[in-house]
Design goal:
heterodimer; A: 381 residues; alpha/beta; eight-stranded mixed β-sheet; two-stranded antiparallel ribbon; 36% helix; B: seven-stranded mixed β-sheet; 7 helices; 24% strand
């Protein structure tokens, strides 16, 4: 439904210069912070129609439309565009690459001005709150003081939740899809194994692989293969691959790729190498591990009691990476503080990845919620 | 708004935090939020009604109240409303208990199966009643746990609930005439109760 936004380009801004560095939760200072971002649609004269997209672990600023010469659209093209739930005829949509990323925003692969070489593991550790600080600085840069909404899935949803806690009432609406207020031991365990794969690669070189002219490709692709399994449901893998063999009728009886699912995972792992950096993967998974949105009940009460932000929480019944119980925990805390919260579990066979897919029932809910947020804002103006 | 919802709304103090169980398209919550300064939250199982609430800006959780109210903490609400819904639940007693767990007070309204019209249909005509308050044919009805005023009051007492206020309803849902109070179980078409824990 709806149309593609068409051709788009990534822009860039320097938000924290040497005279105004970013103060991270760890106490470390970071400058400069360059941020890559894209915008779709037109900002209203009163700057009241901005919707911020927060991307997930391995996303980037290119959420919708097509880059010059590309045959694949941005990662959330199904939901962003004219007539789509994030309707670019109505909303001004902004998506930026995350702090610590590797797609145009300052991260461990950026050059440390103090040393002249890539930060590597000398890049400071940061939190979801720090990601939000950068989002808010980008909004200020664009002249937007009160975004109509922030929307995100998975790690993106965590940023949206943290934004609502860090700047109470700043967001008109907060859309939190298949996210969690804090990871379970199982969630952290998957991240830990992924990081082990990367750091155990002989080409990791303590994170300074770039200077050595090598890359821990084996480790990073293994990390991606593992993570990818957790993004799909058993049902979707069975439907897609079953136990079918790759290009043959009888097993090869060897340890090379033999099953279709193995070939698929290998392809996922390899294509990931073209667009992601191993150090960024370490940092961004660690951010998720440490995230604990409701850890401080006093701060949570201060942020949520009487908040004007309207929340939409959505989960998917086949998502086992962050299952519905994670979303319900968020709903329970929001409701306990009287925050207006709308929640539903959408039925989908596709697991955690559902939030990226064109699922009409899910898009209907997000679209209706954002349209109502737009009307409420217009009526209040 | 339906007249019986007006009666229910009249039992809710201005500015309350209200949870409406089985809120439908959110008619009661719209009134409470827009005109009575309440903070409202709905629970609704139907996807169509859920989206009607979303379109009206009513915060709503899609859930089946027969599965409990795990999304809400003890005493999270001033008032919890169960309006014309109890009789459609599979397990009315656990639903009542969950209602009183998450709310300080509860409001329950239901059609009175002891009403003379019902007794006439069953007792004289030998048919399942179809009326303004029981508008479904037996084979179509969502109502599976119908009760009378007497039955409900007995259950409330057993559950340790005190009736703080009772409004008797006429067949059109409005407050019933004063004379109905003389024999409520026979003359009232429905009732709405404001309940507190003993």
């Amino acid at each position: 439904m709806g149309a593609s936004i068409g051709r788009v380009e990534t822009e860039s801004a320097v938000l924290f210069g040497p005279d105004g560095p970013l103060l991270l939760d760890s106490g470390a200072l970071l400058a400069p912070v360059e941020v890559a971002y894209e915008t779709y649609g037109t900002l209203d004269a009163d700057r009241s129609n901005a919707v911020v997209i927060c991307h997930a672990l391995t996303g980037d600023a290119h959420a919708a439309g097509y880059h010059d010469g590309a045959d694949r659209p941005g990662w959330w093209d199904t939901i962003i565009g004219p007539g789509r739930p994030l309707d670019t005829d109505r909303f001004f949509v902004v998506c930026s690459n995350l702090l610590g990323g590797c797609r145009g925003t300052t991260g461990p692969s950026s050059i440390d001005p103090a040393t002249g070489v890539p930060y590597g593991l000398r890049f400071p550790l940061f939190t979801v709150s720090d990601l939000v600080k950068v989002h808010r600085a980008l909004m200020a840069h664009l002249g937007i003081t009160r975004p109509l909404a922030a929307v995100g899935g998975s790690l993106g949803g965590m940023q949206v939740l943290q934004w609502a806690l860090d700047a109470p009432g700043e967001l008109g609406a907060a859309v939190v899809v298949c996210a969690s207020s804090r990871l379970s031991a199982q969630n952290i365990a998957f991240s830990a194994v992924a990081r082990e794969a990367i750091m155990g690669d002989p080409d990791f070189r303590g994170g300074d692989y770039a200077q050595a002219g090598v890359r821990p490709d084996r480790g990073l692709s293994t990390a991606r293969m593992l993570a990818h399994i957790t993004y799909l449901s058993e049902e979707s893998m069975r439907d897609k691959f079953g136990r079918r063999l790759q290009d043959r009728d009888t097993p090869r009886f060897g340890f090379d790729v033999d099953f279709q699912v193995e070939s698929y995972l290998r392809h996922q792992g390899e294509s990931f190498l073209r667009r992601f950096d191993a150090n960024s993967y370490l940092y961004l998974t660690r951010v998720m591990d440490y995230f604990d949105a409701f850890a401080d009940p006093v701060a949570v009460a201060r942020a949520l009691d009487g908040t004007s932000t309207r929340f939409l929480v959505v989960s998917f019944d086949s998502d086992w990476r962050f299952d519905t119980a994670h979303s319900r925990e968020i709903v329970r805390t929001l409701a306990a503080h009287g925050a207006p919260v709308t929640f539903r579990e959408v039925s989908s066979p596709y697991g955690h990845d559902s939030f990226l897919l064109d699922i009409p029932d899910y898009h209907r809910t997000v679209g209706a919620f954002l349209e109502r947020a737009r009307r409420s804002a217009a009526a209040a103006a | 708004m339906r007249p019986d919802l007006r009666v229910v709304a009249g039992m809710i103090p201005e500015g309350s935090r209200v949870l409406d169980l089985g809120c439908g398209a959110g008619d009661l919550l719209v009134e409470l939020i827009a005109n009575r300064g309440c903070r409202g939250q709905g629970v609704e199982v139907s996807t169509e009604a859920f989206h009607a609430c979303v379109a009206r800006g009513i915060p709503v959780v899609q859930a089946d109240i027969d599965e409990g109210l795990p999304d809400f903490e003890d005493g999270a609400f001033d008032v919890v409303v169960l309006s014309q819904t109890l009789q459609a639940t599979r397990r009315p007693v656990p639903v009542l208990r969950e209602m009183m767990r998450v709310g300080r007070v509860g409001i329950v309204s239901f059609p009175n199966f002891g009403h003379w019209r019902v007794r006439f249909d069953l007792g004289v005509r030998g048919r399942m009643p179809v009326s303004a308050t029981l508008p479904y044919r037996w084979s179509e009805t969502p109502n599976i746990h119908l009760c009378t005023i007497r039955d409900f009051e007995e259950l409330a007492a057993t559950e340790g609930l005190r009736v703080a206020e009772r409004a008797l309803l006429a067949p059109d849902g409005r407050a019933a005439a004063a004379r109905v109070a003389r024999r409520p179980n026979l003359l009232a078409a429905g009732a709405a109760y404001l309940l507190t824990r003993d």
